[in-house]
Amino acid sequence: MDLATIGGLIAGVFFIVAAILQDKGNLADFGQLASVMITFGGTFSATLISFPLADFINSVKSVTLIFRNKQLNEGEIIRKIIELSNIARKEGLLALEEAAESIDDEFMKKGILLIVDGTDPELVRNILETEIIFVEGRHKYVQGFWNKVGEYGPAWGMIGTLIGLIKMLQNMNDPSTIGPSMSVALLTTLYGSVLANFLALPIANKMKVISEAEILLKEVAIEGLLSIQAGENPRVIEEKLKAFLAPRLRDEISEDDAQEGENNA
């Protein structure tokens, strides 16, 4: 489980509830079925109109991704490529086919098999980069879904506000209805803001972060595999691939290499 997601949700709920309870506030005053129906029901109805049913269902299911703590280890990818380059230099490119069987990453495995098959390097790059483009496109589609929910939430909050105000104005001769109508009006605005800024937009942004990390690893893999195919020196390949990483990650890889060297000494 991703602790950042869990921690953020718990902290957000805590601060909202704590703020409501300040000065003898009552949580029950902030729960109203009509406001929930207008804001949440309206938002997801509008989103359902905006997307095909299958995409709507898949995008809703995708929310589970932000709870997964999937480790994307750049150092591990680079080490695996260095290992493959050593095999290729010693035993030839055909020996990579056997090495590919132990790799779980389907993208890298596909690249290795293309190389083993003697595919032209430019064609290998085109095939793998095309796959990246479509993966990135699918990721952006799902991010767009949650961004759309983030857009519709406040809009439906405003619709609820207007409904509440209209009901209030229609019953001005009955003072007892003014309070409930105003409550519906303001709570829908609150719910819409919470739906957008506490859930939908953070979900979209978390998916964007996860996607960018995954795409970076695939780009590292492409450059590494093409370098192996070109017969470059493993040390040169390592330095080339490190250029994709932030300085902090490069230092971590260097430290791990130094530690590994000490252990092997």
Could you explain how this protein is built, in words?
The protein has 265 residues and is mostly helical. 79% of the residues lie in helices and 0% in strands. The protein has ten helices and no strands.
With helices defined by DSSP (H or I, 4 residues minimum), what is the helix count?
10
| Helical residue percent band | over 70%
| Low-pLDDT residue intervals, each spanning 5 or more residues | none
Q: What portion of the residues fall into strands of 2 or more residues?
A: under 5%
Strand-pairing-aware structural class:
mainly alpha
Coarse morphology: elongated
Domain MotA/TolQ/ExbB proton channel: 100-216
Main location: membrane
Pfam families: MotA_ExbB
Protein name: MotA/TolQ/ExbB proton channel family protein
Summary keywords:
single chain; 265 residues; mainly alpha
List the helices and strands and how they pair.
Elements: H1 3-21, H2 33-50, H3 53-61, H4 74-91, H5 96-100, H6 106-116, H7 121-170, H8 178-229, H9 234-242, H10 247-264
Compact summary:
It is built from ten helices and no strands. The chain is mainly alpha-helical and 265 residues long. The longest helix is centred in the C-terminal third of the chain and has 52 residues, at 178-229.
